[in-house]
Amino acid sequence: MTGTPLAAKAQKLGTALAEMTRVAVAFSGGLDSSFLLGAARGELGPGNVLALTAVSPLFPRWELEESRALASTLGVRQVLVEIPWLKEPGLVENGPRRCYHCKRTLFTRLLETARQNGDAVLVDGSNTDDLEDYRPGHEAVRELGVRSPLLEAALCKEEIRALSRRMDLPTQDKQPFACLASRFPYGTPLSQAGLARVERCEDLLRAMGFANYRVRSHGDSARIEVCAEEMPRLLEESLRAKLVRDFKEAGFAYVSVDLEGYRTGSMNETLA
Hints:
Mean pLDDT: 94
Strand content: 5-15%
Structural class: alpha/beta
Number of strands: 7
CATH topology of the largest domain: Rossmann fold
Oligomer: single chain
């Protein structure tokens, strides 16, 4: 691939990482941050790379476990950073600027941890696809001076997938997974119990083998999003009955299916 646009972008990424000498990757275990962690390890060596993983009720436990497994496989030291999410009014109130307050809280804490670990340069997995949706969190990332090497190299998600395949990363086909706060309409306050209920219901869909899914919480109602091709299976009598029963046991009074299907950022559709 030497001389191709993708090869040039990969080289630009490698050059940027090499110039940083030592990096701390904001590492969720998703596609983008996993590729960035692998690329940094390959460029700088595992001793000069740190994986910083946020721990909070906004992220499901299975994702934390997957991040730990990958960091171990890559031989990169991982530090789990507790984030006081539910003590931040701008986040708990869940207004349209929630993502800004979320990222500001997250990266402030990660920056502190990076400085305590050899003054590593904090980097995140933002890429060009993130510029296509309403993402006020990027404003906070820029304000705090966090580097986004994938964005600097103009890499999009499909290119990140292609490069992840070359590195044989287990996340190469992993689907996007936004934090659980995105399951609630703007203006609905976040709570530990509400987040746990959504996590429990999404775990059910995951255990049933659905690849792309969201459980949007509207008060006592759950709105399930799955891809159009997976809807027939979702509506099979035995599976449908089990979901209704389990969702109600989790605390929802009503269970519905969104006929528009799975899509990222559907709660942003209500914004002007």
